[in-house]
Design brief:
Length: 373
């Protein structure tokens, strides 16, 4: 085990949940204090450019704009936890299936975008600096497997590489990272993809992007076993990354379902979906299954000597009034066919009654066992 192993969690939705009435978890505890006692040392926060319509209606999903993120970051730092800032460079969710250009940047050409991403990144970080907020990590772009800020830096169309895509992405990342280094010169920079079990993807992608001499420190990956393969595939990929590239490795997102049902929420993963698609994994959707998955993943992380992992939205409990995306948000990301609700409610580390699941205690237990050896 690496002594300074990062055990992180992304709880970006918490302030929005609290605004909708989530005041306490069972046991009357403060969530940040509880996470810290459970071994968590870094909180990851996503940042959207402008998650509102022109007339001020929010997109949902936490409404993670700059003003609210700054307020939450102060609270996190006061609780004695470090911070990772995750720039999406979009007005709402960004992932391999959607990387929408911020509305106010739509008419900019490539050179203007290079300048804009630099000034925007710099100005955001200067606000963090003015508020005396330390950032241990900065992530320019979220799951940028297929590029970002479409169509400018999209990499593939129908699995065919777009000519010049990696070059344009490299230019934008160089500009963004340059701004990060100007304001937070000692903060580590993370480049983050999804599909953590895909060794061929990572080898190809980073060989391509490394041609542009990016000044980054960590290769980050998402690993959701429903979609990203077995732990063996994850292990093979990480071992190859460490062999091919002189970078640290961290798992930026992971989670596991503890139940296949949470009221009427349109859950992102259920037993039925696994059966229909004949997908892995071999852990039941129970509290014990969730704990077993996390135990095996953390143990593997220690064995592979990676630098950390982050659990995604462990406290996103179903709360009336909260939704992963409002009607306006779904229109922005062109997912009008989906419904309101909390897609992630069965992935949390707390059950619907607010009690902590056994998985929350896994890290401290494994860390203790590891230190005793």
């Amino acid at each position: 085990m690496i002594d300074n192993f990062v055990y992180g969690m992304d709880i970006s939705s918490l302030p929005a949940l609290e605004r909708e009435g989530l005041s306490v978890f069972k046991g009357e505890f403060d969530l940040l204090t509880t996470l810290k006692k459970s071994g968590v040392n870094v909180i990851r926060l996503r940042l959207w450019n402008d998650p509102y319509t022109e007339d001020g209606r929010h997109y949902g999903g936490g409404t993670n704009d700059l003003v609210r993120t700054l307020v939450f970051a102060k609270r996190i730092q006061e609780a004695g936890l470090n911070i990772l800032l995750d720039f999406h460079y979009s007005d709402f969710w960004a992932d391999p299936g959607k990387q929408f250009m911020p509305k106010s940047w739509n008419n900019l050409n490539q050179q203007q975008l290079i300048e804009k991403i630099h000034t925007y990144t710099r100005d955001v970080l200067l606000e963090f600096r003015r508020n005396n907020i330390n950032l241990q990590f900065i992530q320019p772009g979220n799951e940028i497997t297929n590029g970002m800020m479409w169509p400018a830096a999209k990499l593939y169309e129908n699995d065919v590489e777009i000519e010049g895509g990696f070059s344009r992405l490299g230019q934008l990342l160089t500009s963004a990272i340059g701004a990060c280094k100007e304001v937070y010169p000692d903060t580590e920079i993370i480049i983050h993809l999804d599909r953590g079990g895909d060794k061929n993807l990572y080898e190809h992608w980073f060989k391509k992007i490394n041609q542009y001499k990016l000044d980054y420190d960590i290769i980050g990956l998402s690993y959701y076993p429903y979609w990203h393969g077995t732990l063996e595939a994850l292990s093979d990929n990480i071992a190859n990354i460490k062999k091919q590239f002189a970078k640290k490795v961290m798992i930026m997102e992971t989670s596991y379902a503890y139940t296949s049902e949470v009221g009427s929420s349109p859950l992102v993963m259920t037993d039925e979906k696994l059966i229909k698609t004949n997908e892995w994994p071999p852990y039941p959707f129970t509290k014990e299954g969730q704990a077993a998955f996390l135990k095996d993943l953390i143990s593997l992380s220690f064995t592979l000597k990676i630098h950390g992992l982050f659990y995604w939205e462990p406290a996103w409990l179903p709360v009336c009034g909260d939704t992963w995306a409002t009607k306006e948000g779904r229109e922005y990301i062109k997912e009008n066919d989906k419904k309101d609700g909390n897609e992630w409610a069965n992935q949390a580390l707390f059950d619907v009654d607010g009690y902590a699941n056994p998985a929350l205690k896994v890290f401290n237990k494994i860390r203790g066992e590891n230190h005793e050896k």
